[in-house]
Amino acid sequence: MKSPNVSQEVYDELHRFLNDMADTVPLTSSFVAQPRYDEENTQLAARPEATEGLFGDDADSDRTENDPYNSGRKSVKRQRSDKYEKMREVLEERSDALLAHVEQLQREEMRERRNQHQDQMALMREFLAAMTKTNRENEK
C-alpha cells in the first residue's frame, strides 16, 4: 500500500530492504543456559534406594492435595485473609451488646414513665376526690 506522503523512490528502497531480510532473526539470549540440577544429584536420585525415606510419607500430606498432579508449582492464589470475618464478628458482638444496652435503657425509661403516670393519676384522683368533697360541702 502506497502512502501519498512517501515518494516512490523511498517506497522502493524500503520494499527492497524488507524483502532481503529473513523472516525471523534469532535473538541473543540475556542469560546463560545452565542445567537445572547438578549431574551428580540427578544420578543419585535416579537410584530408587537413594530416595527411600528421603521425602517422608507424602501420600498423606496436605501438599498432594494442594498439588494433585505433583507439578511442583506453588499456588499463585493469595489466601483471603479472615480479617474481614473477624471484624464482622467484632461488630456483631458490639452491636448485640449495644442492642441489649439500648433495650435495657428503653425498659427502664418505660418503667419510669409508668411510675410517673401512676403518680399523676393518683394525684388526679386525690384532686377529684377533694373537689367533689368541697363541692358537696358547698351544696349543703
How would you briefly describe this protein structure?
The protein is an all-alpha fold. It is built from five helices and no strands.
Question: Topology, pairings included?
Answer:
Elements: H1 8-20, H2 39-46, H3 48-51, H4 62-66, H5 83-139
Description of the molecule:
The protein is mostly helical. The protein has a domain of 54 residues. 62% of the residues lie in helices and 0% in strands. The chain is elongated.
Primary descriptors:
single chain, 140 residues, mainly alpha, 5 helices, elongated
Distance between the termini: 128 Å
Poorly predicted regions are: none
DSSP, total strands: 0
Assembly form of the protein: single chain
Fraction in helix: 55-70%
Q: What structural class do you assign from the helix and strand content?
A: mainly alpha
Percentage of β-strand residues? under 5%
Keywords: Coiled coil
Coiled coil: 88-120
Region (Disordered): 36-85
Protein name: BZIP domain-containing protein
